[in-house]
Design a protein that fits this description.
There is one protein chain. By secondary structure, this protein is of the alpha+beta class. The protein has 3 helices and 15 strands. The strands form 3 sheets. Strands 3, 6, 7, 8, 9, 10, 11, 12, 13, 14 and 15 form an 11-stranded mixed β-sheet that branches. It has a two-stranded antiparallel sheet with strand order 1-2. Strand 8 and strand 9 form a beta hairpin. Helix 1 packs parallel to helix 3 (about 130-170) and helix 2 (about 110-115) packs across helix 3. The longest helix has about 80 residues, at about 25-100. The termini are far apart.
């Protein structure tokens, strides 16, 4: 059987003669296979080159991103350090405020729990590089948040305590109601100057000219402002916290029942109403219903003792 052959007629441009080329089928098949193989190699080479270029571009981009992250982490570390210093200063102020608020210092173990300790780093074993730095920032930030929450709680406690003590001080009868001289002291028993019988004297008597102003020794609410046998014109003020004050023998009352008064406000005028031998103020202080010596609450700068 004759071999299959291909005849190619080559017709050049111009005056050159045509050429006839005979190619066997086997040679043509080998040439076609070689051409396909060459094309595959070219495609593979192109793919490899493109892949390598893509990898280089991705690597460069990742390096740039890592550098940017490293800068950001460095800035965050600096900001965390500044924040830690600020919280440290606030903590020192908190300690002083707690002293002013009459509170105990925060227990060191509680402070350690708020700040964080070595246990916070146990999860970083074997972690290195950017991941470790990121984890350390999270640990530091969590510790600062705990410490800030602890300080916030401490400030609330101090504010409540200061508010209580401020109200308590405002309710404490700390000034003498009138200027004069002490004519009779607080006593569990004394001879009454008019009745001539032994009776408790549950306050002090301050002699002063008629019409001298009587001032509220602390803020409170007037619970009684009327005439009472023996006391004459009398005023009772409830200061809260179980403290009440009483003022007797006034010539005139300047406040009424239910009225709120402040420290230093005029509430009455000195007189000798009721059982009195002369113009004076009878002044009592009661704590939880029991009479106490008013001079224990105030230094009587304006009172002259006999």
């Amino acid at each position: 059987m004759a071999k299959r052959r291909w005849t190619l007629l080559l017709v050049p441009h111009g005056s050159e003669p045509s050429r006839i080329v005979e190619v066997s089928y086997g040679v043509l098949r080998v040439a076609a296979s070689a051409a396909v193989g060459l094309l595959v190699l070219v495609l593979l080479a192109g793919y490899a080159t493109l892949s390598h270029t893509t990898d280089l571009s991705r690597t460069l981009r990742l390096q740039q991103e890592n550098q940017a992250l490293a800068r950001e982490i460095g800035e965050l570390n600096g900001q965390l350090a500044t924040l830690a210093d600020t919280i440290g200063q606030i903590s020192q102020r908190d300690a002083r405020i707690r002293v002013l608020a009459n509170l105990e210092p925060i227990d060191p173990q509680v402070q350690a729990a708020g700040i964080g300790g070595p246990a916070a780093n146990l999860g970083l074993m074997g972690v290195t590089g950017m991941a470790r730095r990121s984890a350390e920032i999270r640990v530091d930030l969590s510790a600062l948040i705990r410490r800030a929450n602890l300080l916030a709680s401490s400030f609330r406690e101090a504010a409540d305590s200061l508010a209580y003590h401020t109200a308590r001080l405002a309710a404490t009868p700390s000034i003498m109601p009138t200027q004069g001289w002490l004519s009779s002291a607080f006593s569990s028993m004394r001879a009454h100057p008019i009745l001539h019988t032994a009776r408790p004297h549950e306050g002090i008597d301050v002699s002063a000219p008629t019409g001298s102003p009587i001032e509220a020794p602390a803020a409170g609410v007037v619970t009684d402002a009327r005439w009472e046998a023996g006391y004459g014109n009398k005023i009772v003020i409830d200061h809260g916290f179980g403290i009440t004050t009483k003022f007797a023998h006034a010539s005139k009352l300047l406040v009424r029942t239910g009225q709120r008064v402040s420290r230093g406000q005029r509430i009455a005028l000195v007189g000798n109403s009721g059982l009195a031998t002369g113009p004076h103020l009878h002044y009592e202080v009661h704590v939880k219903g029991r009479p106490v010596n008013p001079l224990k609450y105030v230094l009587p700068d304006g009172v002259v003792t006999d």
